[in-house]
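Friendly challenge for the regulars: who can give me the structure tokens for this chain first? No prize, just bragging rights.
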Amino acid sequence: MNKKFITSLIIGSIASGAALYFAFRNVPFADLVIYLRSINYFWIIPSVLIVILCFILRAVRWQLILGSSWKINFRQAYHPLMIGFMINCVLPGRVGEVARPVILQKKENIPFSTGLATVVAERVFDLFMLIILFVTVLATVKIDPDLTIEFGKYNLNRETLEFIFSSMLKLSILLMAGIMMVSFSITRRTINRMIMGMPSLLFFADTSLKEKIKEKICLHAVRIVENFASGFSLVKSPKTICICFIFSIIIWALHVFTYYVFALGCPGVDLSFAELAAVMVIVCFFIALPSVPGFWGLWEAGGIFAMLLFGVSYKEAAGFTLANHVVQMFPVIIIGFISAFITGVNIRRVSFNQQKDITDVSS
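First reply, four minutes later:
Bragging rights claimed.
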């Protein structure tokens, strides 16, 4: 394996261990172990099966988004998706999002920028679902403004949640505006004319230099815009958008269901489906903050904060969130590695050498 890849794994593991220490420093280790032993791990089986189903539906949704411009089968969507999510779990920087279009380009000859556009479109659906769910949480759950969980440089509290919500809302609006501008031919032609007209602003350059800039840079940029527009083709199909929203609702409902099913085997966690939905949403918002690979520590701290709101004790909240985090993460990591083996994808290469793999992003 490449030294950079190994070094990144080691640093990520150490950082994750340190993050877990910060999350659990207020819980006596012996008490945490006792609680973890008290969990009925039979409930892992249905929980893991539901997690797997969630990612199958995610792959179908991504296949639909891709299908607006490139027809691929389920397997061609599923393996890159699982590899991408697995990379996000084990390496920093969420490079798995970029790995997906890299794999599509290498395996299916889909232009990188088109594949990246479909990943952005898929993430927009998730962003909107999280925003809707969080608004529901704010309307139904009393979040004590004085409750704060310190985690490293972060203070996890209502104010932080509202800041993340505001940032997500702005990002969603910005992404939607960008997608609309690129997707519709009128605005896209305007963008392309502006790109092709940029060399004319270089009044000090001679004609030959301007032509070279047009050929080497401007035409390249226009091709990228066109490929992005191809990736956003679902905008022209209201039916596809509606189907993707239905899939998104089912996916997020199933994610909550994994929490609910696993909680059945966890002593002291007697929360309703709606309450566990609020816990999941709060955790998802907190892990949007920059953190170590796999969100270790930050996930647990966010889960403790959320469950304290519903009267769960610190020890039980810590034990549940840690065990549930493992249930949510490890199937993804294992299946991602299996997908990489089946498809012959070099994880190190797609993670660290994209610049070598993508010699022409517009191709």
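Residues 191 and 198 are 11 Å apart (CA to CA). The chain has 15 helices and two strands. Your move, everyone else.
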